[in-house]
Amino acid sequence: MARLLELDAAGTLSTAHVRAGAQVSGVNARTVWRWLEAARAEGRMERRPRARLELSDQAWEVLAQAGGNVAALHRHMKEADGEVPSLASLHRAVRRDLDTGRVLPDRAVVRRDREEQQTRQALVDLALAGAREAGVVEVDARRPPRSKPTAPSAVPVGESGALAGVALPAGARLVRTSSVRTVAEAVGQAMAVQGAVCVFGDPGRGKTVAVRMALHEVPAGWKVTWVPVPVRPSVAGMRRAVFDALALPGRFPHTSALADAAIAGALGEARVLVVDEAQRLPVPCLEYLQSLWDRPDTRITLVLCGAGSERSLARLPHLASRIGAWQEVPRLAGAEAAAVMTGFHPLWRTVPAPDLTWIDQSCAHGIFRTWAALTAHLQNALLTTADAAVDRALLGRLFKRVVPPL
């Protein structure tokens, strides 16, 4: 083009020159005349730059969900009421990016990532909603309709009025105390990030019940596994306990490598692993649980529960530093004990509030397990003793049955 322009400026440009230039460039002679006209008018000898269609990451995600169907992406862009390129332009843009190394995500992977993100957000919302609740919420023994299975205020229980693994006196109902709500919040936030939480407190405060109530109904796609701690556990015993708790098919493998491979495969799906009585675990067993949790192919939320479990974890700083929440279950406060017990069993609704405070100060001391034992003894006394009345004399005699001798 530069030589043709020089000939044109000198006035010696002829049709033969243009034809020769077209033959060399492999284009039509008319095209060369258009190039010369554009060079005279605009002073350029290269092609006019054309706007290039660039697909956003959101468009690629839609394309992945559609299994690479460009027509489906085109329909989606039309429904979005934005500027829509032609279908042919979309095909060219997709083909160009794929040729330059762009990888189309597998739609199953994209769907799973989106569902995981939605589940994590739901767990966070669930925990925050649980933290905003106030007062005491009773849990009826009759199973309510499951229109909102993940609602934090609805924890349906069985016909016996108890969750699996929780023994209650006849006629008693689970009560959502402030401790239960804080444990549910801590566990829910740990599930949102697949982290770890330690639930601790003195014996009898209701730690296990709080965790069971928090995990009774988890979002779809999650499973809950309770791992019992063996007596005087070893790493081999802990491995076998996890294998049995997961209910894996077949016999227990004869080598630790095969057992760990089978366990890791089962832990590849979203799962809450609850280890109750974690204070019994020596450092090697805690290291084994940490190794399962740290594996990149497992998706575990680890809940360590037990009286003194926080002291056991202190012996392994590497695991203690990974605990996202240290949740203590305190004693029932004096004012809260009266409200909780009237919701826990109908017997206590007939007892005046000052007497409930006296019971807590004299015997129960905010320990829920002591209150449950006292409820069972009181119920038995009323059934077996004629004309028995719930007074301080009867309660004083029952105190001696539930309080250990000094």
Automatic annotation (TrEMBL):
It holds the Pfam family AAA_22. Residues 194-308 form the ORC1/DEAH AAA+ ATPase domain. InterPro entries: AAA_22 (IPR049945), ExeA_AAA_ATPase_DNA-bind (IPR052026), P-loop_NTPase (IPR027417). This is AAA family ATPase.
